[in-house]
């Protein structure tokens, strides 16, 4: 029986409190990896394989009701014996970075849960795209983690000052660091965010250098690098995410194979990432100003003077429209979910106690 210190893996007081209040007699673990209905979990006795209980399966409405990488879960045991351990509950997530599932209509997929810092990685070469960055930042604020922008492959950039200016205007209030794995630039700044029990996640397009950076931070080759790896059907072969313990403390999560990023219900995230525009809008004469033909519109003035760029304002309008659309869809979902659960509760009252 190995003695693992779960504090090293990010165990916090609120998790302990919730666990002790609601799950006496059970065991605690954190999800390291997720593979088709099977989870690799770290416990105080070491690693264990788990699967969700029948109760979770029965009551689940969508993927949010299943464990995700980074989740704290409740287990029926700590050690490997015949069969898998059973996950009986998921403790409250203090943050979750999600995306819309590609191809599916409105289903949310959690990329990583209980993260403290979200490193949004964008390369300073072809990958450079302010619109996409704004989208990520908005999702980042919405996740509950602190977004930090890492401008990767700075060794390939000849106009760093200019690019930095652009990023600063697209990411007000967000820390921004140029980094390079080739000449080790910025690594110390990144390490400053990573410490004992802190969970950090790296997101961004394939090929921007997330895995390379992680290997440099760890000091050993943990992640496969080389950009996009695809099998004969054009799918990414390395699609799983995992929690990695850094030798100097901290928990790192790489996110391979993120091709598309879609917005979810995140009006709050947009407000935070476009705080400069929200601030301007408060100066418009009308509180419901649509910034089109209204008199004394502070946004129009800022656009005319160049204080606010057309590009950024366009990006803001686009993201806002998408968020409103998603919000409508999601509230409909919430209603369906409520109804479905109500019917289930009514049904289960008739049945005898349902376990596993
Ligand atoms: N020039 C340069 N290339 C890099 C840097 N970091 C990574 N790369 C290269 O970019 C490619 C993709 O890197 P990888 O870490 O696999 O990207 P990921 O898909 O974001 O994990 C690899 O060929 C790396 O060698 C960097 O700082 N500078
Ligand atoms: Mg990678
Ligand atoms: Zn206005």
Describe it for me?
The protein is α/β, with parallel strands linked by helices and 356 residues long. It has three domains: 13-90, OB fold (Dihydrolipoamide Acetyltransferase, E2P) (Beta Barrel), CATH 2.40.50.140; 96-253, Rossmann fold, CATH 3.40.50; 267-330, Probable gtpase engc, domain 3 (Ribonucleotide Reductase Protein R1, domain 1), CATH 1.10.40.50. The chain has helices at 13-22, 54-59, 130-143, 160-170, 187-191, 210-218, 267-273, 275-281, 298-305, 310-350, and strands at 27-35, 38-43, 46-52, 72-75, 85-90, 96-100, 108-113, 117-123, 146-152, 175-178, 199-203, 243-245, 251-253. β6 and β7 form a beta hairpin. α3 (130-143) crosses α7 (267-273). It is globular. The protein starts with 12 loop residues before the first helix and ends in a 6-residue tail after the last helix. Mean pLDDT is 85; it is low at 228-237 and 349-356. Bound molecules: guanosine-5'-diphosphate (GDP), magnesium ion (MG) and zinc ion. Residues 152-153, 155-156, 180-182, 206-212, 225-227 line the site of guanosine-5'-diphosphate.
Sum this structure up briefly.
With about 350 residues, the protein is of the alpha/beta class. It has helices at about 15-20, 55-60, 130-145, 160-170, 185-190, 210-220, 265-275, 275-280, 300-305, 310-350; strands at about 25-35, 40-45, 45-50, 70-75, 85-90, 95-100, 110-115, 115-125, 145-150, 175-180, 200-205, 245, 250-255.
């Amino acid at each position: 029986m190995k003695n693992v210190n779960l504090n090293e893996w990010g165990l916090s007081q609120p998790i302990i409190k919730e666990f002790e209040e609601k799950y006496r007699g059970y065991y605690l673990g954190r999800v390291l990896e997720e593979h088709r209905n099977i989870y690799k979990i770290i416990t105080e006795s070491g690693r264990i394989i788990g699967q969700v209980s029948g109760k979770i399966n029965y009551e689940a409405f969508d993927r949010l009701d299943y464990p995700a990488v980074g989740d704290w879960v409740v287990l029926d045991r700590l050690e490997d014996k015949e069969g898998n351990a059973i996950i009986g509950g998921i403790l409250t997530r203090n943050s979750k970075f999600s995306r819309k599932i590609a191809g599916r209509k409105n289903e949310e997929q959690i990329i990583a849960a209980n993260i403290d810092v979200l490193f949004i990685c964008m390369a300073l070469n072809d990958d450079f795209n302010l619109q996409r960055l704004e989208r990520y930042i908005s999702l980042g604020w919405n996740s509950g983690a602190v977004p930090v922008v890492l401008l990767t492959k700075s060794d390939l950039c000849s106009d760093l000052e200019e690019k930095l200016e652009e990023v600063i205007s697209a990411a007000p209030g967000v820390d921004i660091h140029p980094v390079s794995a080739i000449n080790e630039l910025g690594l110390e700044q990144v390490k400053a965010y990573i410490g004992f029990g802190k969970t950090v996640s790296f997101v961004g397009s394939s090929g921007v250098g997330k895995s390379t950076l992680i290997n440099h931070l760890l000091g050993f080759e943990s992640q496969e690098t080389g950009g996009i790896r695809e099998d004969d059907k054009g799918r990414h072969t390395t699609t799983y995410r995992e929690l990695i313990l850094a030798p100097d403390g901290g928990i790192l999560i790489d996110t391979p194979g993120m091709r598309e990023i879609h917005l979810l219900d995140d009006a709050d995230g947009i407000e935070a990432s476009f705080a400069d525009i929200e601030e301007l809008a408060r100066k418009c004469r009308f509180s419901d100003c649509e910034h089109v033909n209204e008199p004394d519109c502070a946004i129009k003035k800022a656009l005319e003077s160049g204080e606010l760029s057309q590009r950024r304002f366009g990006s803001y309008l686009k993201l806002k429209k998408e968020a409103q659309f998603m919000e409508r869809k999601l509230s409909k979902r919430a209603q369906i979910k409520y109804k479905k659960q109500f019917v289930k509760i009514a049904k289960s009252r008739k049945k005898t106690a349902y376990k596993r």
